[in-house]
Amino acid sequence: MELSACIVVYNGCDEALRAAQTVLQYTRRHPLTLYLVDNASPDGSGARLEAAVKGGALSTQPGQKVEVRCRRENGGFGTGHNTVLPELTSDYHFILNPDIQLTADTLSDLADWMAAHPDAVMARPGLRFPDGRSQSLPLRRCALRPMVYRQLPFLKFWEKYNRAYLMEGEDLSAPVEIEFCTGSFSAVRTAEFKAVGGFDEHYFMYVEDADLTQKMRTTGKAYLVPQYTAIHAWHRAAHRSLKPFLWQTGSLLRYFHKWGFKF
């Protein structure tokens, strides 16, 4: 079984290198090609990634290789990941954020689980904060009320819709079908990922992972597989500044136009 993974970098080379090292360190059972895509970082991250790989800063094992691709312009998250789409020949591909850290062979575990479940075309592990707390991430389709509440939590009368969005109250201790697979850590069957054309590049940032999940679900099912885990720092830029918030709003409008409005 062949695996591939991609981390898209926009500034912050050091964090991406730490993530890459844990991916290489813990992925043992299957051959792996790890792609590091620099999205035209103004801080010189692309050149630093190339130098790090060329200089041996990332330790690879037999069957592993690291490829750096430097884009000339920042096309956004999905476009960055699509950079390597024509090159992929793996059985399973992993979409990873630079703020992901592995502590076990989660890539092989997820790939093996998906191989044993032919209806699964997309999956994600359980994600935890660096201090060990479990993260509650969206699992249902994007809807207006929970997304507004997550930006404006003083709207307590919409809190119940956010709980449904997170599938609170349902058994999430075992694998379960979901409608939203986060782009911070997703596994996809490579053939289906290529067949749907990868990410929709009309999204610059935010909601493109929800869109990809809907595209992948036209070919099979998406799952949360919580027995396998990873650390996710979860910077949540959209909750801290105006520009990312406006990007997210625009992306959500595009998503509703494409997949139908859900209140």
From TrEMBL:
**InterPro entries, per the entry:** Glyco_trans_2-like, Nucleotide-diphossugar_trans
Provide the Glycosyltransferase 2-like domain boundaries: 4-186
| Gene3D superfamilies (alphabetical) | Spore Coat Polysaccharide Biosynthesis Protein SpsA, Chain A
Molecular function as annotated in GO: decaprenyl-N-acetyl-alpha-D-glucosaminyl-pyrophosphate:dTDP-alpha-L-rhamnose rhamnosyltransferase activity
The catalytic activity of this protein is classed by the Enzyme Commission as 2.4.1.289
Q: What class of enzyme is it?
A: transferase
Stated name of the protein: N-acetylglucosaminyl-diphospho-decaprenol L-rhamnosyltransferase
Organism from which the protein derives:
Faecalibacterium prausnitzii
